[in-house]
Design brief:
The chain is α/β, with parallel strands linked by helices and 204 residues long. It contains five helices and ten strands.
């Protein structure tokens, strides 16, 4: 199982935003939507072994589950509609209880530390994606691995502290900084190919 935890600093907490202005009035929700689709979609299919978390302003967490999700398309607008439907249910949240806003999409009132706690409790191996980490090719094979990354902004100092409390592992995809959605695709490829060792394309 693979999980990606995307920290969204400016994404909206309420549904009052236009689907026609995702980069502007919606707080760079275009970056978030591209990252969700990069995490879950592949050519003509869905990565059913993958979960994408979006932690919104350290107040809400939206979980997109590949195995169960429906109506996820490779365009930002339709993904933003799933996001908007989720935050529209935020007023119904009580404590840390999750609400399913649409098939395979859940929202809960949790911050970054809560999400990382849950992944660890389920046996996930946490890794921070950063340019100055160890090469991803050194990552030991795991049945359940999770990666933490930021949106268009750098992590704030308290976020770095939170991540450091949960994991010392820092993984690099190379010396060149990538957009969040690109980093997710490269990470998938690294795992798909066993650290760039297997490119048999369907052959053992």
């Amino acid at each position: 199982m693979r999980e990606f935890v995307l920290v969204a600093h400016d994404a909206p907490l309420t549904p009052e935003f236009s689907l026609d202005d995702l980069p502007g009035a919606a707080g760079r929700l275009d970056v978030i939507c591209r990252s969700i689709t990069a995490g879950l979609l592949r050519s003509h299919g869905i990565r059913r072994d993958t979960v994408v978390w979006v932690v919104v302003q350290d107040q809400l967490a939206i979980r997109f589950i590949g195995e169960d999700i429906r109506r996820l398309n490779p365009d930002e607008r339709s993904t933003a509609a799933l996001y908007r439907k989720a935050v529209d249910r935020a007023g119904d949240l009580v404590g840390h209880r999750e609400i399913e806003s649409s098939p395979g999409v859940y929202i809960t009132r949790r911050g970054l530390s809560d999400v990382l706690d849950e992944i660890e409790d389920r046996g996930g191996s946490l890794n921070l994606l950063a340019e100055d980490g160890e090469p991803i090719t050194t990552l030991e094979p795991r049945t359940h691995v999770a990666f933490v990354l930021s949106d268009h902004r750098d992590f704030a100092a308290p976020e770095h502290d939170t991540i450091a409390r949960h994991t010392p592992n820092c993984v690099s995809l190379g010396p060149v900084a990538l957009h969040a959605d690109q980093a997710i695709v490269v990470t998938h490829n690294a795992i798909d190919t066993d650290g760039y060792q297997r490119y048999a394309c369907g052959r053992p």
